[in-house]
Design a protein that fits this description.
two-stranded antiparallel ribbon, single chain, 4% helix, globular, eight-stranded antiparallel beta barrel, 12 strands, Lipocalin, 196 residues, mainly beta
Length: 196
């Protein structure tokens, strides 16, 4: 008879959570996107596709942790000209700072989503941020991998990281918004412990 497979989810104080273990981000199914505004009106969207990291789920959910790295040169906004500017020294300066990163400091599960507080480093500047993370569920894919799916959102002021490039508009205001919404969608694969 086939061995009974361990459950992928568990319930802790009424919350459905992923099973304990190390869940590694699948880079083929990971995206960190951002939404800003141009002329203070039009939404401008972009994304980073070079995303790696791990979610370590502890027996006590508050002891869990998250680490993520982002290759800044992977930024894509649908405009080659804008992408070149985003990668330039005016903004992400990918030649000097090829990686942005996030490392959690605390995890607070709750019915409205888990609040993950941590340090976000962009262009060598580290500032605290709080992500609202939603656990979307877990599945076994056709190839036997155990996958857990997460989404997260936060809003930040890019000038807190020194990303202050802008152009004043004749009628008032500025070309690019300071506030940026960050949206994260990832699939993770549970690491299988090595024997021995």
């Amino acid at each position: 008879m086939p061995a009974t497979q361990p459950p992928l989810t568990r319930t802790v104080e009424g919350l459905e959570l992923p099973a304990v273990g190390e869940w590694v981000i699948d880079p083929g199914y990971a995206e960190v996107s951002f939404v800003g505004r141009r002329f203070m009106l039009t939404k401008v969207r972009g994304r980073f596709t070079d995303v790696a990291g791990v979610v370590r789920v502890a027996d006590d959910p508050a002891g869990s942790s998250v680490e993520v790295t982002i290759g800044t040169a992977s930024v894509s906004s649908g405009s080659a000209e804008r992408d070149t500017h985003l990668r330039s020294a005016d903004l992400l300066d990918v030649g000097r700072f090829p990686v942005a990163s996030f490392a959690s400091r605390s995890v607070r599960p709750g019915a409205g989503g888990t609040l993950v507080e941590g340090d976000l480093t962009i262009v060598g500047v580290t500032r605290p941020v709080v992500l609202r993370v939603d656990y979307l569920g877990a599945v076994r894919d056709p190839w036997g991998h155990e996958r857990a799916l997460f989404s997260a959102v936060t809003e930040l002021n890019r000038e807190d990281w020194g990303l202050s490039w802008n152009v004043a508009l004749e009628a008032g205001g500025v070309l690019v918004s300071k506030k940026v919404r960050i949206e994260v969608e990832v699939e993770t694969i549970r690491s299988r412990p090595r024997n021995g």
